[in-house]
Amino acid sequence: MKRRVTMLIASTLALAVVLPGWAQVKELPTQTTTIAGTIETIDTTKRAMNIKTADGSFVAVNVPKTVQRFGEFKVGDKVKATYNNNVMVRLKPPGEAAVNTTEMDRATSPTSGSHMIVQKMTASIVGIDKAASSISFEGANGWKYSRRVVDPTVFDQVKVGDKVDITWNTDLTVSLQ
Question: Within 10 Å of residue 50's Cβ, how many Cβ atoms?
Answer without folding.
Answer: 16
